[in-house]
Amino acid sequence: MEERNNLYPVFLKVKNLEILIVGGGNVAEEKLTFLLKSSPDAKVTMVSPMFREATRSLANKFGVQMITRKYHRRFLKRKHVVIATTDVPEVNIQVYKDCRKRSILVNVADNPPYCDFYMGGIVTKGNVKVAISTNGKSPTTAKRLRQFFEEVIPENIDDLVKNLNEYRKTIKGDFEEKVETLNEFTKGLIGKKEVANDQD
Length: 200
What we know:
- The protein is of the alpha/beta class.
- About 45% of the residues lie in helices and about 15% in strands.
- The protein has helices at about 25-40, 55-60, 90-100, 140-150, 155-170, 175-200, and strands at about 20, 45, 65, 80-85, 105-110, 120-125, 130.
- It has a 5-stranded parallel sheet with strand order 3-2-1-4-5, sandwiched between helices. A two-stranded antiparallel sheet has the order 6-7.
- Strand 2 (about 45), helix 2 and strand 3 (about 65) form a beta-alpha-beta unit.
- The longest helix is centred in the last third of the chain and has 25 residues, at about 175-200.
- The chain is elongated and about 60 Å long.
- Its EC number is 1.3.1.76.
- Keywords: NAD, Oxidoreductase, Porphyrin biosynthesis.
- It holds the Pfam family NAD_binding_7.
- Pathway: Porphyrin-containing compound metabolism; siroheme biosynthesis; sirohydrochlorin from precorrin-2: step 1/1.
């Protein structure tokens, strides 16, 4: 039977959530970088006995709280999402177990069996955001797809979204009528491409 991706994609308002990154090395910095690139207003705390200078610099720039201590389960208090990135497997697995007991979403970097979620490739153009998942199988493929979508999604897509939002406010009728009107109005977005493909 063909494998399929059963993950359910969601877009989290991370400024309303408390995120903890356990670890202070390269992987921690990478996770923090991608998180802040996508959500500069994310509320993040990091805990580690040591932090790289570049990590400290990035954390200071975005108001990330840094705790220079070894991991302890008390640091999970009031946290909603945890990312474990240490180079000590036993610590990462302990973080996972502690989070599961407290119903906290957890991701152990590069260890799919110990993940409630994956951090996928992300493309952002104004209000439009596309997230890409390979079911934890191939981050490199997600990266290539992200580069592809960055190229094919037009730069002015945000203008279109804003204009459609204004137009939506002026449409009369019930929900179904509004949806139908907007569907008709935006059909050309895909239709042109289909016509072009038919001529190939």
